[in-house]
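Incident review: delayed structure delivery

Summary: a single-chain prediction request sat in the queue longer than the usual turnaround. Root cause was a stuck worker, restarted by the on-call engineer. No data loss occurred. The affected request and its eventual output are reproduced below so the record is complete for anyone auditing the incident later.

Affected input:
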Amino acid sequence: MRRITMWLLVTATVFVLLFSYHTSTDSGVGTGTATSVAAPITAPTTPAPGTAGTDSPSSDSSPNTTDTTTSAAQTYTGSSVDTRWGPVQVRIAVADGQITSATAVVYPQNNHRDQEINAEAVPVLEQETVTSQSADIDMVSGATVTSDGYIQSLQSAIDQARLG
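Output delivered after worker restart:
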């Protein structure tokens, strides 16, 4: 009888310890949520010549396209791509048929590790975009998932801009 009682107590203790064990101190890890980092959109201060009296942008622009009425510069926001660690979305600025800048407006920042990886990877991806003028860029080692989402969203923005 004593052995059975001791066995039940030990078994109950093991189950309590097993089910109360916390595997991580980061509450956001693996939840699939992401923090969005949005780049500011600047509005033009003076209207372009010949546009007086037209307050609204053309109605034929797609919902992911933001037109800025500066001299031939336009921004295009690619579709949001869901990755394993959270969504990724890219915005490009195009002037005279050339990509002048690329910005990752949404990317995973759930925890310290995401922030550490993407603080290094995102600027590299943005620079590669401007240098290559296409979505044919190298992935960043250690940030493969973010790189893949970035490239897919970038291609969507390039398609909207109707670039090569």
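Verification: The two ends are 82 Å apart (CA to CA).
Action items: add queue-age alerting; document worker restart procedure.
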